[in-house]
Amino acid sequence: MWARSLVLSAPGKVILHGEHAVVHGKVALAVALDLRTFLRLRPCGEGRVCVRLPGVGVVRSWDTPRLQALRSGFAADSDESKSPSVEQLDTLKEFAGIAAGASAPESLATLAFLYMCLAISAKYGDVPSVDILVWSELPTGAGLGSSAAYAVCLAAALLTACGAISCPLKEGESTARWTEEELTLINSWAFQGERVIHGNPSGVDNAVGTWGGALRYQSGKITPLKRVPTLRILLTNTKVPRSTKVLVAGVKEKILKFPAIMNPVLDSIDAISQECQSVLEAMPANPSPEYYPVLEELFDINQHHLNVIGVGHPSLDRLCWVTASHGLHSKLTGAGGGGCGITLLRPDTSPLAVEAAKRDLCACGFECWETNIGAPGVTLHSSSSLNAEVLHALSES
Q1: 319 CB contacts (<8 Å, ≥6 apart)?
Q2: Residue range 18-69, pLDDT digits in tens
Q3: Cα–Cα distance list, 315 to 18, 349, 366 (Å)
């Protein structure tokens, strides 16, 4: 039986540059967002597995013998590189009382938990008797990688509980991270969780959640950037709903209609991603203030390009206008058409300007967070390293 109580976390993600262009083979840069999902793992008596996800209203528990009995469908092909099969997922849906076509977050989160619990334990030992509580600072459905942060936390917790990876947190340390080899295993299982939730994900979100920092993505190839600075940002959710599928189709239509006009715009977005990568990689060795105007200008140019390819929205124009009135530079992040925007904060941006910008953005009906990008990936925490809000959320039992 698992005997320790652990807390771990994984970051969300934002696309810094390259959204939409990445669909057409161009470079995108994804960065870890320091709004995090936290998981508390505790031993659970009476041979049960309990999972609580207050953010989506899930409180479920199962007897471990019942879960062990289900595992026969996993034992033969329990492998972190194999996609979850339709049969496996159908069996789990029936077991958990989830309707066949259910797509609500609580159904998918429960399904991902059951799949990962059974597949990981089938490969590495018995189903552990554990009590898992997950709480997140990330809003769901906003394109900020909340499902991947959840999958990364689950993979790390279940692999640790089954003994497949070590528990690197030593007495007296505030935080600890796993070895590169262990992170690779966490990432591959988190990808399976993402497959349960999304069907055919790119793997970018779980990679950012696992390794943190920043990574480059192009035509299916994911490359972590070596060293990147931590940058302060405002993250703003316009709360305007949008369909990524519809926006992606709209861009494709424009490219087909005006190839000679649109392809150079995609090439320019690609060049912005590459230029931004060069700047980010140069910054840690030479932390000079002269890099910030370059990053700000790249934000401005890319935002105009994203409007040109048709994924802007009046709410995002307003976000850019409000922040510009405070001398700040913003762009949309992700699908566009509403959703979220990011605003770069220089190290010398006055706290008064930041507060005034936040106040004006909230007055537009937007939700706003001051946070960092380039944050660390999946991390183990001692209780003393957690802030009061997280401790409170994780103490709800």
Answers
A1: 236, 238, 330, 341, 343, 361, 364, 366
A2: 999 999 999 999 999 999 999 999 988 778 999 999 989 999 999 999 998 8
A3: 20, 24, 9
The residues annotated with a catalytic role in the active site are: 147, 205
Residue pair 142/135 in contact by the 8 Å Cβ criterion: no
Q: For residue 269, give the nearest of 210, 196, 329, 218 by alpha carbon.
A: 218
CA neighbours closer than 13 Å in the CB half-sphere of residue 275: 16
Q: Is 381 left (phi over 0), alpha (psi -120 to 50) or beta?
A: beta
**Residues 136/36, Cβ–Cβ less than 8 Å:** yes
Q: What is the pLDDT of residue 128?
A: 85
Angle at 103 between CA 87 and CA 85, to 5 degrees: 20
Confidence of residue 172 (pLDDT cuts 50, 70, 90): confident
Burial readout 26-39 (b: 16 or more C-beta within 10 A, e: otherwise): bbbbbbbbbbbbbb
Q: Are 264 and 258 in contact (CB under 8 A)?
A: no
pLDDT in tens, 251-272: 999 999 999 999 999 999 999 9
What is the pTM for the complete model shown? 0.93
Cα end-to-end distance, the chain, whole Å: 20
Residue 205 has which token pair? 């979100």
Query: In terms of Cα–Cα distance, which of 202, 213, 223 is closest to 378?
Result: 213
Structure-block tokens of residue 60:
């479920």
**In the structure encoding, which two tokens stand for residue 267, read together?**
């090439």
**CB neighbours (10 Å) of residue 218?**
17
Per-residue pLDDT at 71 exceeds 90:
no
pLDDT averaged over every residue in the chain: 93
Q: Which amino acid is at 229?
A: P
